[in-house]
Amino acid sequence: VTAVSLNSVAFLLLFRVSFTNRNRFDEASNKSSQCRSDLGEECIAGIARIQYAVSKLKSEFYNHTPLFLNAGDNYQGTIWYNYYRWKVVAQFMELLRPDAMTLGNHEFDDGLEGLAPYLSRLQSVGIPTLVSNLIDSSGGIPKLPASLVIERRKRLIGIIGVIYDKTNELSKTGDLKFTDSIATVRAEAVKLKQRGVNIIIVVSHCGLEIDTQIAVEAGDHVDVIVGGHSHSFLFSPDSDQPYNKQDTIQGEYPVVIKNVNGRKILIVQAYAYGKYIGRLTTYFDSAGEIVYWEGYPVYMRHDVYQHDSTFRLVKKLRKQVKSYASTKIAETRIDLEQETCRMRECRLGSIFADAIADYYTNETFHPVAIVNAGNFRTPIPSGDITNEDAIGAAPFSNSVELLTLRGDALWNLIEHSVVWSASKRLNAMQVSGIKIVADLNRKPYARVLTIEVQDLRSKHYKPLSRTATYQVVTLSFLASGKDGFKWALECTDRQIGPLDSDVFIGYLKKLKVITEQNLRSGRFFINGTVTS
């Protein structure tokens, strides 16, 4: 039992991040693919479970004046979004009604024209979207406040929203500008302090590493950071709460950071896929200092009840996409995994790269294909492949484009894919028609040892020439230089093709059955292997 001062006040913090990105409005399997209960799979997650769990916690902890926050990335992930776009996201947001939220990078995937009506709808029903480090000089989206002050139990609570300051490299942000995440939060927190606010929560879509930097550099004013973007699963190993054993624990829940002045700042995340909602109760003294906390991620396992009216709504909406979604287009006898795509060659990446290369291939022309690993969102397990499986695997509605590139630009694109990101991940290029050998022990941008390109006539592989010209198929996201792949902009010609989902589905129909034999491995050797 921990003693808590009688003059302290407790607040329950509930949060959900990414309830659609890499996730399902509907139930999902433990692997976060479509749940197949007919095959005996255990169905978890889903918006109806989230709605019930949030409502139940709000009711149980009413005296702790709960706050419900959302850290962005509410677009994309399944055929639901491909079919309904922003409207279904707004509809479920209205049901969940977070006290405040911020934007994630995926909210920009349909450009400003796909974001503006969503924000307008949320504003019309009183759901505040906070982003402190976004500058919109052209008026492409509704004006968004940097922060919000809420009064609860006669205490002022400040909530600051912040997004990753390199979001313009990740998505279609138009003319928007993003200022430094850390400096902006610090400045906004100082403003709130000057207004007499001494409890400050940051809702961040920057990732755990940057959230940690915010805690260190702005920790004199910030108390709790509710994070997203890096999909970090935080869990205390000695906790008796249930969790999915397949989910790798990446840190304690919460992460506790001490700044230079000895203040404690709490950082929490709730992973992804709709598997968890975060729960954190914090006790503050009269000066706004945290004196005690307790909490854990709540696992949305199969025995969590589903909210009645939300379940009925999901069932109603499901009918409008079910026929198309469930249509079988092919069969795979091997798992097409997605989870490892950022770190190495993966089957899903290979089959997708083969698909977009095949679209432009004929008897006299065979381009190479490259796809950044961030393009892939959900795996395709062995068995029948449906339209929903294919669209959900790579759901961003990119066009398939043919670039004319010099060999040195192509080499640099591959080099960039094996540079560690801020969240300690690679963006390993998924390829077709080329073979790559890389060594991560070498310094960045000097890790690629060899690149060989397949010859159209002999089918043998020949060393890439840095001065030769190559035809390279990729997606519009990478072709636009996003995710730091700026060398794609050096192309001398750029041909825009059809949607990637149409190309992928067409190729799967053409193959009919996917086996190890028609999915050649050994495309990308990293540190001597394609499997680690």
Summarize the structure.
The chain has 532 residues and is of the alpha/beta class. 25% of the residues lie in helices and 24% in strands.
CATH third-tier fold name of the largest domain: Purple Acid Phosphatase, chain A, domain 2
Beginning-to-end CA distance, first to last residue: 45 Å
Q: List the uncertain runs.
A: 1-7, 17-23
Round the mean pLDDT to the nearest integer and report it: 90
Q: What is the annotated CATH architecture of the largest domain?
A: 4-Layer Sandwich
The overall strand count is 25
Q: Could you describe the largest sheet, including whether it forms a barrel? A: 6 strands, mixed
Figure out the total of helices: 12
Radius of gyration of CA atoms, rounded to a whole number = 24 Å
Number of domains: 2
CATH class annotation of the largest domain:
Alpha Beta
Q: Determine the fraction of residues in helical runs and give it as a percent range.
A: 25-40%
- Strand fraction band? 15-25%
CATH superfamily placement of the largest domain: Metallo-dependent phosphatases
Structure description:
Residues 38-232 form the Calcineurin-like phosphoesterase domain. There is one protein chain. 25% of the residues lie in helices and 24% in strands. The protein is an alpha/beta fold and 532 residues long. The protein folds into 2 domains: 18-316, 4-Layer Sandwich (Purple Acid Phosphatase, chain A, domain 2), CATH 3.60.21.10; 327-526, 5'-Nucleotidase, C-terminal domain (5'-nucleotidase,  domain 2, Alpha-Beta Complex), CATH 3.90.780. The strands form 6 sheets. The protein has a 6-stranded mixed beta sheet with strand order 5-6-8-9-11-10, covered by helices on one side. It has a 5-stranded mixed beta sheet with strand order 3-2-1-12-13, with helices on one face. The chain has a 5-stranded mixed beta sheet with strand order 18-15-22-17-23. 48% of the residues are buried. Mean pLDDT is 90; it is low at 1-7 and 17-23.
